[in-house]
Structures are given as C-alpha cells and as structure tokens.
C-alpha cells in the first residue's frame, strides 16, 4: 500500500462535457421548440396541452427567442450541476475514505469497512456489521475506482458478498417482525410515489432495525445484518 491520497472525481473531459453539453443542449432545444410547436398546433390540433404549445409557438420575435434560449441554457446548467452534486466524489488514503455528495462530507475509517463493491451504477460501502455506510453513483470510471480501493488496501469485491442472503419481501411473512413489515410497506409506497428522500429515510430505519434492503425491479429484497 502507499500512503498518498487518491481523488476519484469526474475526469476533466467528462466534467466539461456535462457542464458545457447540457447548457448547449438546452439552447438548441429552446431554439427549435417554437418551430416544432407551431408545426404541432397547425398540423395536429388534436394534441393535448394546446395552450402551452400555442404559447411557445407564438415566440416569433427575435428577442423572445433569445430569452427562451437563455432560459434553455439556465435549465441545462441546473441539470448539469444537479448531476454533478448528486454523484459522489471520493478521496482515499490508506486510513480514511472521504465521501463528498450534496454539499455534505463524510469520513469513514478503513478499519470500519468490511466490503466495497459496485451495484449497477452505484458504489456500496458496508460497515463491519454489513450495514451500508455509503450508496450512490460515483464520478470516476469503475476501473479507476476499483484500482484505487485495492491500492489503498480496502476490501474491494466485484459483487455484493452478501448477495446470497437476500430474500424477496412477502408482506406478513413470519420471518420478519411486524414493525419491519410496516417499514417495508411504507418504503414500497414511497418508491411508487418516487419520494426518494422518504425512501432513503425508511432504508435507514430498516438498517437501525437490523435489516438491509435492496431493490430489484419493482421488488424489495431484504437480509439481516451480520452483527
């Protein structure tokens, strides 16, 4: 192992593509939308949202189009900054993992980590009881992430080492306490409503009750923690 610091963030090319590409896309869409909206209300009068379409189609003055394009650029910038802020920047040393996400910084000692592995587009870090400490999309390419964690001596795995322990949630099944069923049912409803913050809170509640949950399509799967 080496005792240097490794930062895992977006490669400069990818970051420039995000910060410049989304605003450029917003500008292009804002420029062509009035023409497309005019064609739609003229040729397809049965389309829904006729009022908003006519409003956009009426942006025929140059200054109006300019303001609309400026709004498109602003919307693109907003999407770009959200994409950057919602993904994780990772900083590793031989002793500490630092995770920066959503203007929040958290630090975890390597000695408290039992496993690090990819799960789809997300990276998962487990503590010594197999509870998730970290779960989220990472900025750096997966190969660079894997190499850095291995170089600094973290317990990297190509897949979830506890994958075989998960079972599909069946409401009222006797293996789980009643309060766990209540939380899982609430979490399923929150997922249906796309209430992401509520889903995260309920996932944390399950961890406090001694259970880890993961999603596979529309199904919830659970397993007990190991300690």
From TrEMBL:
<dbReference type="Pfam" id="PF23493">
    <property type="entry name" value="CysS_C"/>
</dbReference>
<keyword id="KW-1133">Transmembrane helix</keyword>
<feature type="domain" description="Cysteinyl-tRNA ligase anticodon binding">
    <location>
        <begin position="174"/>
        <end position="223"/>
    </location>
</feature>
<feature type="transmembrane region" description="Helical">
    <location>
        <begin position="15"/>
        <end position="37"/>
    </location>
</feature>
<keyword id="KW-0812">Transmembrane</keyword>
<feature type="transmembrane region" description="Helical">
    <location>
        <begin position="62"/>
        <end position="84"/>
    </location>
</feature>
<protein>
    <recommendedName>
        <fullName>DUF308 domain-containing protein</fullName>
    </recommendedName>
</protein>
<dbReference type="InterPro" id="IPR057798">
    <property type="entry name" value="PH_YqeB"/>
</dbReference>
<feature type="domain" description="YqeB PH">
    <location>
        <begin position="6"/>
        <end position="157"/>
    </location>
</feature>
<keyword id="KW-0472">Membrane</keyword>
<dbReference type="Pfam" id="PF23494">
    <property type="entry name" value="bPH_10"/>
</dbReference>
<dbReference type="InterPro" id="IPR056411">
    <property type="entry name" value="CysS_C"/>
</dbReference>
């Amino acid at each position: 192992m080496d005792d240097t610091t490794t930062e895992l963030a977006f490669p400069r090319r990818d970051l420039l593509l995000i910060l410049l590409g989304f605003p450029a896309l917003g500008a292009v869409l804002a420029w062509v939308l009035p023409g497309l909206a005019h064609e739609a209300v003229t040729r397809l009068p049965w389309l829904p949202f006729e009022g908003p379409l006519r409003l956009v189609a009426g942006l025929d003055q140059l200054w109006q189009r300019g303001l609309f394009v400026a709004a498109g650029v602003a919307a693109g910038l907003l999407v770009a900054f959200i994409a950057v802020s919602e993904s994780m920047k990772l900083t590793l040393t031989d002793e500490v993992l630092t995770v920066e996400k959503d203007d929040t910084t958290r630090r975890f000692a390597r000695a408290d980590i039992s496993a690090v592995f990819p799960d789809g587009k997300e990276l998962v870090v487990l503590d010594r009881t197999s509870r998730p400490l970290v779960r989220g999309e990472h900025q750096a390419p997966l190969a660079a992430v894997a190499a850095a964690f291995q170089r600094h001596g973290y317990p990297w795995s190509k897949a979830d080492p506890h994958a075989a322990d998960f079972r599909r949630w069946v409401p009222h099944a006797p293996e789980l306490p009643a309060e766990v069923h209540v939380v899982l049912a609430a979490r399923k409803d929150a997922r249906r409503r796309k209430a992401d913050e509520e889903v995260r809170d309920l996932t944390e509640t399950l961890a406090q009750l001694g259970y880890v949950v993961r999603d596979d399509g529309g199904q919830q799967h659970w397993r007990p923690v190991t300690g």
